[in-house]
Design brief:
This protein has a 7-stranded mixed β-sheet with strand order 6-5-4-1-2-3-7, sandwiched between helices. Helix 1 packs parallel to helix 2. The protein has a single domain, classed as Endonuclease Chain A (Endonuclease, Chain A, 2-Layer Sandwich). The protein is of the alpha/beta class. The protein has 5 helices and 7 strands. It is globular, with a radius of gyration of 16 Å.
């Protein structure tokens, strides 16, 4: 698990032009914060960073999310399918979303992708939270990733762009 996180951080540190990150879940814990810090540093050195996370279980602190969005003109964050078009879903809203709009509410984005400079990327099942990288001692969780480079990177970029430009992906 540490190698999986190190690979991501090293790719981000070496980025020169662009970074695309897509995930279902992003927490403000150690792993989530390490990733955000690395991405913010990349944006501050002029790398275009696009983060796309499913809204339901990501970035629960709306104030921090807003501060991140304003931190660099090179950092762009979108939330996929926010319930009632809000960045954070309160428990009552969550229940109302299921009752009134189940089909729309259940349209979640589970894709996980990191693509650097449109040339090299990682896909797999890890979200950005401690438990997915072995940093939560209460969980015995193991996942796999694949490091990819070459022509498949164009396919990864197209896949990311489909979600990024989807009407359900809101800034």
């Amino acid at each position: 698990p540490d190698a999986a996180l190190a690979a991501r951080l090293n790719l981000i540190a070496g980025a020169r032009y662009s970074i695309d990150v897509q995930t279902y879940l992003w927490s403000f814990d150690d792993v989530g914060n390490l990733m955000l810090d690395a991405l913010l540093r990349a944006a501050q050195r002029g790398v275009t960073v696009r983060i796309l996370a499913d809204q339901l279980f990501s970035f629960s602190n709306v104030g921090t999310l807003a501060a991140l969005a304003r931190s660099s003109p090179h950092l762009h964050i979108r939330l996929y399918n926010p319930t009632f078009d809000e960045a954070h879903t309160q428990p009552l809203q969550w229940a109302a979303g299921i009752v009134c709009c189940y089909f729309r509410f259940n349209q979640r984005m589970h894709d996980k992708l990191l693509l650097v400079d449109g040339r090299v990327g990682i896909v797999g099942g890890r979200n950005y939270e401690n438990r997915y990288f072995g940093w939560d001692p209460s969980l015995d969780y193991l996942d796999r990733d694949v490091l990819l480079a070459g022509p498949v990177a164009r396919i990864m970029r197209r896949s990311f762009d489909v979600f990024w430009h989807n009407p359900r992906a809101l800034p």
